[in-house]
Amino acid sequence: MILSALLTSVGINFALCLLFFILYSVLRNRPSYADFYIPRLVAEGKFQEDDEFSVVKLLSSFKWVKRACQPSEEELLANSGLDAVVFMRIFTFGLKVFRFAGIVGICILLPFNYMGNQLNIDFTDLPNKSLESFSISNVDDGSNRLWIHFAAVYIFTAVVCYLLYYEYDYIASKRIAYFYSSKPRPGQFTVLVRSIPATSGRSFSESVESFFSEYYPSTYLSHSVVRRTSKLRGLVNEADKVYKRLVHVKSKKHPQQRFKRAGFMGLFGRKLTLLDHYEKKLEDVEGNVRTERSSIAGKEVPAAFVSFKSRFSAAIVSHVQQGVKPTEWITEQAPDPQDVYWPFFSASFIKRCARSYSFGSVGGLVTFSERHIKLKIVSQVITGYFPSLILEMFLSLVPPVMIVLSSIQGYIALSQIEKSACIKVLWFTIWNIFFANVLSGSALYRVDVFLEPKRIPELLAVAVPGQASFFIAYVVTSGWTKTFSSELFRLKRLFWSFLKGTLCWKSDEELEVPSNPYHSEIPRILFFSLLGMTYFFLAPLILPFLLVYYCLGYVIYRNQLLNVYAPKFETGGKFWPVVHDATNFSLILMHVIAIGIFGLKKVPLASSLTIPLPILTLIFNSYCRRRFRPSFKGYPAECLINKDRFDQSDPTISSFYDELATVYRDPAMKSVRYSEARESSSSPLLYGADK
């Protein structure tokens, strides 16, 4: 890519970002768009409607940027939880890393690259020259200037490792502090017990009661046996849909004048008013729900949520083998009730194992290479903008697919599914975007490359620098514009909402507050981090664009966490080990490329002296795993016992114990009452506990 094409791409994306910024700032406070742009504030009753329009209010609309940056980390922690804090620490970590990298890369490495003579560039026509003039490719072979790049790689590695250790230590201590300051949570006192042995003449519930009353008489509190509710869940969902349609029909003027045919697809048969049709259908579905609920008592699954009087007791039970046979009474720490993935219990053990083991690598499901999207058009717009745009459209399909693949692997918690999907999306992105673009040929060719480890540094050294221009355009398109359009302006959701409202009936559904899609956003941030570390010494021109992305992301995602997203679950910062491992991988990839590039540039001593770097990085990563990873798998006994002792003086702990007996119940098992829908259009859908 020539410099003028890059400038064209930057100009287009900057204009789009500015447009989305202005539109969002103006629309976010309009009552008709409040549910869309600040749903969390609306749901919490913090939004004040004001239809008046003035120039002063228009100018004040841009103050959301200041309000997003004002809350402290402690306020963000109290508002959105530790996962949100860890998510924002990824941005602050990236800003620290690439601020240092930008100073070194732009002020030191870039001028030396630019002054090289390897490519014989005529600087009199600079706008029409290749971006390789700013890369290490332009440094003369065997030049002593390459030792500056060598020193930069070592110093940069040391800085990143120091920041990684600091962040890991900080988040680990934050995790403990958050545990001490948080209220009692059901998941801390509860264990999921699976593979309960069947006993003749006894139900699973009776077996659980007998077993834990005998072996844990002083700490056992209560239990809730899981039941197979897949059919009931489908009926409840169907009833919800019919109910909402009935409410919608009643909200219209003259509902008795709206008709539907009783026959096939509503096209044939006698006429019915929509009101009568949905009332009759709701009665039928409600009857089916009652029938299924009454017959589900005997559909027990050999699994139960068992609660104890202390966190320490639950931790002991979850880590100790309970029965003589290791395949019976299998225990693990239970997730919180809102985090439970209930469809997990609808599949048999054999099916779960088959799904888990049959799930293979997803990296090769789809491959995409820049050569597939290079259009033979001279236009700078096409060469500088559309390849990365098409690539981004393709990538938007990946996260939902990975969620589906993770959900069939046998995870019992939504947070586990999202974390698994996060890892899959990350490695899928690295393989299909980075390696697919830097290595030519088919997927099988790329696999053959890695079957010859000795050639990897050389091949990457040849291929990676040539793709710098594409990845700079990718950062601008996928980083800048997508952050504004998709995340801030929510363009796709806005378009879908408009299309649904235009072509379909609008339902008076309850306002739904979304949760932060960690499985798609964390891999995106980490992939940009990989690009920055890889091209830090190869093509430092990418660093300013990455710094702009991290600055934009910091402001925009803070705004989204405060105004749009509500936490769906809380893992206590368990996403950070993924960030740590991915960053170490990026460092090692940079080292491997450095070994190859110094060899190609005929500085074999520098190449040899770089070999210890990946080894030292692996040792550092191993040390951090042993030092910090146990704290992210569970809480130490010291913390559990201290927290249990503190709870003994809490006057609300007795009521909390009472709630534990019923809190782990499949939502499909809760009683549902729709009768108000036939009496009043404003009646809500009511849920209550079983009697």
From TrEMBL:
Pfam families assigned to the protein according to its UniProt record, in alphabetical order: PHM7_cyt, RSN1_7TM, RSN1_TM
Cellular component GO terms, alphabetical: plasma membrane
Domain CSC1/OSCA1-like cytosolic: 188-343
Keyword Transmembrane: yes
Record membrane topology: Multi-pass membrane protein
Key words, A-Z: Calcium, Ion channel, Ion transport, Membrane, Transmembrane, Transmembrane helix, Transport
Gene Ontology MF terms in the entry: calcium-activated cation channel activity
Domain CSC1/OSCA1-like N-terminal transmembrane per the UniProt entry, residue ranges: 5-167
Subcellular location: Membrane
InterPro entries: Csc1-like (IPR045122), CSC1/OSCA1-like_7TM (IPR003864), CSC1/OSCA1-like_cyt (IPR027815), CSC1/OSCA1-like_N (IPR032880)
Domain CSC1/OSCA1-like 7TM region stretches: 376-598
PANTHER family to which the protein is assigned, alphabetical: CSC1-LIKE PROTEIN HYP1 (PTHR13018:SF109), PROBABLE MEMBRANE PROTEIN DUF221-RELATED (PTHR13018)
Family according to the record: Belongs to the CSC1 (TC 1.A.17) family.
Annotated protein name in UniProt: CSC1-like protein HYP1
Originating organism: Sesamum angustifolium
